[in-house]
TrEMBL record:
Source organism (scientific name): Thermodesulfobium narugense DSM 14796
Lineage of the organism: Bacteria, Pseudomonadati, Thermodesulfobiota, Thermodesulfobiia, Thermodesulfobiales
Protein's recorded name: Alcohol dehydrogenase
EC number: 1.1.1.1
A molecular function GO annotation: metal ion binding
Domain Alcohol dehydrogenase iron-type/glycerol dehydrogenase GldA span(s) in chain numbering: 17-183
C-alpha cells in the first residue's frame, strides 16, 4: 500500500437539479406536474409582476389548471419580518410549494419563508450553519439576474431589521429542488443591474477560489466563471440585449454559484453583508467596491491562488516579484470596471465614518469570514472600509 500522501482533501459538493438555456422557462409547468404539486405560491417583486416572465409562469399554471397565490411585496434586501409575512400567506393559502421568480432578494426570501413553513420559532433562530431540522416545501427557482446564484446555493441572506445586519443561513436544505435558468430573462434587466449582478458573480468566483473551503471541484467552476465574466461583461455593457452575451453571463453566474455554495466565500462578502444590512444598499455594488482592497490585504496569505487567477486570464507572471504580480490582478479588475463604467465608492452610497465601527463588528462575526485566507482584526476591516470612502 502506498504511503504517499493524497493530493486532495475530502470534499463534498451539493447542487440542485437545474435546466439551463434559452426558453427553458417553459419547463415550469412540467416540473409542477413531475413533483405532483397542486397549490404553489409564486413569490416575486412588484417590477417582475408586471414583466413578461412572471406572467409567463401564471399562464403555464393556468394551462394545467393549477390554482396559485402571489406574494410580491419584497424589498431589495429581504428583511426578517418580510419572511414571516410570506410564511403566513403560505400557511393561510395552504400552499404545498414555492415558485420563486426574481433575483437574489426574491429567492433568498422564498427559501427563508420555506424554512418557516415547517420549522418552529423565527427566522433569526436559523442564522448560522445547519440549524434547519424539518424538511421544507419543494422550491422551484426562476432566476432573473446573473449574480446572486441563490437559485443553486445552500445560502439564504436575510436582514435582521432590529440590529441592521445580514444574517447568513446555511444549509443543504436550502438548495432548491429545481432551478430553471433562462438567459432570456436578462433581456429586461436594467443595464445597471446587469453590471452590478455580474460583478457580484465575479466576486463569488474569486472569493470561492481563494477560500479555505475550496476544492478541485469548485476550482474548475470558479476559474471558468472568472474568465467568462472578464471576456463577456465589457461586450454586454455595450450591447445588453445580445442573447449570446447574456447566455455567457448567466452561465458564469451559475458556475460561480456552484463554486461558492460549496467552497463558501470570504472577507469581501462579510463586509458587504454588513454594509448592505446596515445601510440597505445593493449587495453586488458593495462587493464590487470592496474587491480590490480585500485582494490587496489577502494577497500575502493566498498569493499562489491569486496568481492562478491571473494566469487563467492570460497574464505572464512567472518572472515577476510578488508586488508586481498582485498589481497585475488588481489592475485587471480596475480596467474591467473602467470598461463597463463602474466607478462607485462607499462615499457615493452615503456611508459615514461614524458608521464604520458597527459595520466592522458585524463583518468579523459574519460566517463568510471563516473561510477567508486569513482572519482579519476589527481594525484591519475598518481600514479596508475607510480606503473605499
Amino acid at each position: 500500500m502506498s504511503k504517499d500522501k493524497s493530493m486532495y482533501k475530502i470534499s463534498k459538493f451539493v447542487a440542485p437539479e437545474f435546466i439551463f438555456g434559452v426558453d427553458s422557462i417553459e419547463y415550469v409547468k412540467r416540473y409542477i406536474k413531475n413533483f405532483s404539486l397542486t397549490s404553489p405560491i409564486v413569490i416575486t417583486d412588484h417590477g417582475l409582476l408586471k414583466a413578461s416572465w412572471a406572467k409567463n409562469i401564471f399562464k403555464q399554471l393556468e394551462e394545467i389548471n393549477i390554482e396559485y397565490c402571489i406574494f410580491d411585496n419584497i424589498t431589495e434586501n429581504p428583511k426578517d419580518y418580510e419572511v414571516e409575512e410570506i410564511a403566513k400567506v403560505i400557511r393561510s393559502c395552504n400552499c404545498d410549494s414555492i415558485i420563486a421568480v426574481g433575483g437574489g432578494s426574491v429567492i433568498d426570501a422564498a427559501k427563508a419563508a420555506g424554512i418557516m413553513c415547517t420549522n418552529p420559532g423565527t427566522i433569526r433562530d436559523y442564522e448560522g450553519i445547519d440549524k434547519i431540522t424539518h424538511p421544507m416545501p419543494p422550491i422551484i427557482c426562476v432566476p432573473t439576474t446573473c449574480g446572486s446564484s441563490a437559485d443553486v446555493s445552500q445560502f439564504a441572506i436575510i436582514t435582521n431589521s432590529d440590529e441592521r445586519y445580514k444574517m447568513a443561513i446555511v444549509s443543504k436544505s436550502l438548495t432548491p429542488d429545481i432551478s430553471i435558468i433562462d438567459p432570456k430573462t436578462l433581456i429586461t434587466l436594467p443595464e445597471e443591474l446587469l453590471i452590478s449582478t455580474s460583478l457580484d458573480a465575479l466576486t463569488h468566483a474569486i472569493e470561492s477560489y481563494i477560500s479555505l473551503g475550496s476544492s478541485p471541484i469548485t476550482d474548475m467552476f470558479s476559474l471558468k466563471a472568472i474568465k467568462l465574466i472578464f471576456e463577456t461583461l465589457p461586450k454586454a455593457a455595450k450591447d445588453p440585449k445580445n442573447i449570446n452575451y447574456l447566455e455567457d453571463l448567466m452561465l458564469a453566474s451559475l458556475m460561480a454559484g456552484l463554486s461558492f455554495s460549496n467552497a463558501s466565500l470570504g472577507m469581501v462578502h462579510a463586509i458587504a453583508h454588513s454594509i448592505g444590512g446596515y445601510k440597505d444598499i445593493r449587495h453586488g455594488t458593495c462587493n464590487a467596491i470592496l474587491l480590490e482592497s480585500v485582494i490587496d490585504f489577502n494577497y500575502l496569505y493566498a498569493a499562489y491562488r491569486y496568481d492562478k487567477i491571473s494566469e487563467s486570464l492570460g497574464y505572464e507572471i512567472k518572472d515577476l516579484n510578488e508586488v508586481d504580480r498582485k498589481k497585475i490582478l488588481i489592475d485587471s479588475i480596475k480596467e474591467l470596471k473602467r470598461k463597463i463604467g463602474f466607478n462607485i465608492t462607499l462615499k457615493d452610497l452615503d456611508l459615514k465614518e461614524e458608521e464604520i465601527d458597527i459595520i466592522a463588528k458585524h463583518a468579523v462575526n459574519d460566517p463568510c469570514i471563516l473561510t477567508n485566507p486569513v482572519m482579519p482584526t476589527i481594525e484591519e476591516v475598518k481600514e479596508i472600509i475607510e480606503r473605499n470612502i
